[in-house]
């Protein structure tokens, strides 16, 4: 079986398809139609919905990277507007419409979508969600009948699985969610402006986190030091290693075939303008 680079490659290929639920106009429209006014109410409701009607403390802990008061602006009030089941319906409706626009009806009804869904669902059903509540909650949902939605849901489960492994790698090194953002900006994976705006952190919070990392020797004049480069590389390596488990169920041929099927999907999403350059997700280009 290939090494952890397999998990990283598949994440880089798959993430733009998953992220249609954040960036596509159709997803925002579906959220608004459900009564969720404003981008962030829709975001927190639709991403947290598999967990049930949880409050801000749980979501802040599980999502890891958001400022607590930013989360509390949306939760728990969103559940008074739409229950989790309604948010789940809205997110599938938005993705359905976005995929049909970006990839077209021929792809939606074609064999490549069906084959990709079968491979991704097989990986998403693999063991290994212990300690990963978001992955477990997403995996417990019924698999949609339509292949393009089954693919989206399976890839969403797998990306939450990866994200929770990333949190474990950060916790092991006592790196907070905000400190992880500072390191990501210093590494050039996103920008301070994107991350403070999209995660709700104040400039003073950011400056404090940067000062803490400087004291640890990870930053020098706002740039990654040699130690910082080594530690961020170690975090990413651990994240890739911890994400590999589900992909082992496919073996090398299955992983290679899914990568082949996802490459044009990713390209279509990027070409359509639904994957903003430098966005806070910080996914590298696939290699």
Word description of this protein:
This protein is an all-alpha fold. It has one domain. Helix content is 70%, strand content 1%. It is built from 17 helices and 2 strands. Strands 1-2 form a two-stranded antiparallel ribbon. Helix 4 packs across helix 8, helix 9 packs parallel to helix 11 and helix 9 crosses helix 17.
Strand order of the largest sheet: 1-2
Task: Assign an overall shape.
Answer: globular
- Note the beta-strand portion: under 5%
Largest beta-sheet characterization: 2 strands, antiparallel
- Give the N-to-C terminal Cα separation: 18 Å
Which structural class best describes the helix and strand composition?
Answer: mainly alpha
* Whole-angstrom Rg: 18 Å
Domain count, please report it: 1
Average pLDDT taken over every residue: 95
Please give the share of residues in helix: 55-70%
Secondary structure tally, helices: 17
Give the number of DSSP strands: 2
Uncertain stretches: none
Order of helices and strands: HHHHHHHHHHHHHHEEHHH
Q: What's the layout of helices and strands?
A:
Layout (H helix, E strand, L loop, with lengths): L4 H14 L1 H4 L1 H9 L5 H10 L7 H8 L4 H5 L5 H4 L2 H25 L2 H14 L8 H7 L7 H26 L4 H10 L5 H8 L3 H13 L3 E2 L2 E2 L1 H18 L1 H4 L2 H21 L16
Antiparallel strand pairs: 1-2
Helix pairs in contact: 1-11, 1-17, 3-8, 4-8, 8-11, 9-11, 9-17, 10-11, 11-15, 12-14
Brief digest:
The chain is mostly helical. The chain is 70% helix and 1% strand. The protein has one domain.
